[in-house]
Amino acid sequence: RDDLLGAFLIMRRGTRLIPVLDCDEQYIEILSKFDPFIGSRSHAKDEVGRKIQRPAWGVLGLTKEQAAPFVQKREDAVKTTPLSTLEPLCGWSEEEKVALLNHMEKPSINLSHPDLISWIDS
Fold first, then answer.
1. Same domain as 67, residue 14
2. CA dist 88 to 6, 10, 81, Å?
3. 111 and 61 co-located in one domain
4. Would you say residue 26 has pLDDT above 80?
5. Beta bridge partners of 53
6. CA 29, CA 36: separation in Å to the nearest integer?
7. pLDDT confidence bin for 91, thresholds 50/70/90
8. Residue whose C-alpha is closest to residue 17's, from 78, 91, 67, 66
9. Residue 118 belongs to what domain range?
10. Pairing state of beta strands 43-45 and 51-53?
11. 36: left (phi > 0), else alpha (psi -120 to 50), else beta?
12. What does the alpha-carbon distance between residue 94 and residue 100 come to, in Å, rounded to a whole number?
């Protein structure tokens, strides 16, 4: 459940997810409601304007070692960013996680935050 919630938070910030290994198909189906292109890499342009597949910059639910076979790196890249391990739920309470899950299931009747000011207090 935490991987599902973490993936949703990452997607909300405009990041494309590439599910790997034995991802739970039920979770992929839920997430695809928010990004119908889940699993397909977005494109970018390299230094000379050629269209390339955007490289991965972070992993969620795997170690860097587990993710390594799935991460595509361009040999001719001028600069690369080290792969990050993402923990988007770090600091979230159980109440906040439940509220987010409820929001994902029925966003029109469930706020994404249990109250509208708790995120300001921290």
1. yes
2. 5, 7, 19
3. no
4. yes
5. 43
6. 9
7. very high
8. 67
9. 91-122
10. antiparallel
11. alpha
12. 10
Cα–Cα distances (Å) from 52 to 34, 42, 44, 76, 80, in that order, read 24, 9, 5, 12, 14
Q: Quote the tokens at residue 50.
A: 């050629």
Query: Quick one: tokens of 42?
Result: 């977005």
Average pLDDT over residues 105-113: 73
Residue carrying structure tokens 């391990």: 85
- What is the reported pTM? 0.71
Torsion of CA 33, 12, 70, 58, to 10 degrees: -170
Q: Tell me the pLDDT of the chain averaged across its residues.
A: 80
**What per-residue confidence (pLDDT) applies to 111?**
65
Are 58 and 30 in a shared domain? yes
> Looking at the structure, do residues 85 and 105 belong to the same domain, yes or no?
no
Same domain, 107 and 53: no
